[in-house]
Specification:
globular, single chain, mainly alpha
Length: 289
């Protein structure tokens, strides 16, 4: 149960984060070399904002075990997301990758974090997660392969994992210092995979040709996750995990309008299910459940 001003602030923060998250995923999906673009999107904000650590200081020792674990999970997450986008449409992969995550978090959070969910909150999370998954699964005339669904589901598992870890980590550290160090660790741990599959010249060429777009994507990614971490300090991670997955609807719309991917009646109905779930979740956060 969350106070009125707190739930409103949490809702606003997470919806802005959802828009930013969908935007940088669109950038990765549209790029010819998705692996390099995803890595640069992770790397650039860490480099640009690292001087802020002189102001905030490094996260305390108590947060570093969470940071190292989350950095590893994030590196796997980005790698698997790239694989999914190499095989499937944005409007298929993104909703499934986002939609399964809140369901997994809702199952794990009571065991890992001791969070308690009302029946209304559980129903809301199921509607949000199920509706967003349906956005992907109802794709007609999709160019996506079955392998893209498997990669998207695996990506969702990593999203659930780092959400739980970061909830514990951000309660022990300043959110800004935490996220800057997290992005740096993510980039370092993802680097060996990138350079195992790509030459330095390829990375340099992508940077030279598309650095403006990729820096924008990196700042969007950073802003999205920083906002989510701030929201996690205000309320339960189960609520935040579900609210942030509203980005799945935004991603499906971007796939339709920007990339020309199909968006028929089944997807409209799925989006309505998500909207109903989010409305219930707001009620649960206000104490209506």
């Amino acid at each position: 149960m969350v106070g009125g001003s707190v739930w409103a602030l949490s809702l606003a923060i997470v919806l802005v984060a959802a828009c930013l998250h969908a935007s940088w995923n669109l950038i990765v999906k549209r790029d010819d070399d998705k692996l390099i673009s995803a890595w640069i999107i992770v790397l650039t904000p860490a480099l640009i904002l690292s001087p802020l650590l002189f102001w905030t200081g490094f996260p305390p020792r108590a947060a570093w075990s969470m940071l190292l674990l989350s950095g590893g999970i994030h590196a796997v997450y980005n790698s698997w997301l790239v694989r999914a986008y190499e095989h499937g449409d944005l409007s298929v992969v993104y909703p499934i990758a986002r939609g399964l995550a809140p369901l997994l978090v809702a199952l794990a959070a009571p065991l890992v974090l001791g969070e308690r969910l009302t029946p209304l909150a559980v129903a809301a999370i199921v509607l949000v997660g199920g509706g967003i998954c349906a956005l992907g699964l109802t794709a007609h005339r999709s160019r996506s392969r079955l392998s893209s669904l498997a990669w998207a589901a695996a990506t969702a598992a990593t999203t659930a994992g780092y959400s739980l870890v970061d909830k514990m980590g951000v309660m022990r550290a300043n959110a800004l210092s935490y996220v800057v160090v997290l992005f740096a660790l993510n980039a370092v741990l993802m680097g060996p995979l990138v350079f195992r599959e790509r030459a330095w010249g390829q990375v340099a060429a992508v940077w030279r040709l598309r650095r403006g777009r990729l820096v924008l994507g990196g700042l969007s990614s950073l802003g999205a996750y920083l906002l989510v971490l701030c929201a996690m300090q205000l309320t339960q991670v189960s609520y935040i995990a579900a609210l942030r997955e509203s980005s799945g609807v935004i991603g499906a719309l971007l796939g339709w309008r920007v990339l020309g991917e199909p968006f028929g009646l089944p997807r409209i109905l799925a989006a309505m299910v998500v909207a109903a779930g989010l409305a219930l979740l707001v009620l649960a956060m206000r104490g209506g459940g």
